[in-house]
User: Fold this.
Amino acid sequence: MVSKEPWVTEDLIAYLTSIYPDKSPELKWTDKEVWFHRGEVQVVRHLTNILNKQKENMLAAMPSPKD
Assistant:
């Protein structure tokens, strides 16, 4: 099943990044915690990639200036 990508905003990415920061694991974390946090970060990265594609598409759709 192919699903349509959601519309992603910079505010959403900023919010998610503040909750799920992309940082090194802490020494006290168990293996399961490391993988759990890794999954959170992967979701934020995926949504960031969607946002970047949206920006590229908007720029490509802009009319070029007339000479």
Notes: Helices lie at 10-19, 31-61.
